[in-house]
Amino acid sequence: MTTSSASSQSGKVWFITGVSSGFGKLLAEYLVTLGANVVATARKPETLKELVDSAPEQVQALKLDVTRPEEVDAAVKEAIARWGRIDVLVNNAGYGLTAAVEEATPEEYRTLFETNVFGLIHTTQAFLPQFRKQRHGNIVMLSSIAGLVPSAGWGFYNASKFAVEGLSEALAGEMKPLGVSVTVIEPGPFRTEFLGTSGRLAQHSIADYSETAHKMREYMEKQNGRQPGDPQKAVEAIVAAVEAEQPPLHLLLGKLAYDRYEARTKRFQDEVELWKETTLGADFPA
Active-site residue 143, yes or no? Predict the structure, then answer.
């Protein structure tokens, strides 16, 4: 990965969801130092005051709850009205839910999907006419290693991020001929608020899951603030990926993400080979 020069993003316009904390906040701050124009969005835009004050000519702060389509449409309209275009869309807004599959209520998992999946879809759709018109741009999807490697206790979060992965790969195929790149970011554990204020626990708890799903509750409590990933290096990697001549479709971040994906791939391939005869025998005779 190469470090971006101070002028590498000068004049480019980035639209980022979920800028009040975590990767969104750090990415917006970093982009300002690179000369980019940033449309910073958050459910509570007052949390963006410091960012706006740091570079009022570069930063536009907008109220945006991605679960409200009318707010998405209004934010997109305001952003394009000010800047004339969006070069990079970053779908960053999202959160985690720790629960055994049996434990979570419909309200808990539907709310998760409204943000992590449906909000992302509507925000992306709202920008696609502009991207098609201008024939260039980048769409960045913040997924997770949890979107590639599932774990007990993260089932609903896994499901939401697996949905992002599938949508993004399909979208990449649709947008590439139009000059627009799609990149999915899959971080491992990074020292953001994900295990703290951005993480939620199911209210219902079933003792039979103490040795499986509930281990993730313990993980959240013990590892918050001790994650190995450096968030600043992550946002620099995201910018480097966007700047690349051929941006990657997938970008894993952190050693743990790499190791978990590698191990999962091997297990998957071993199982496929073990059942190969059954798999190939499921067709009509040639």
Answer: yes
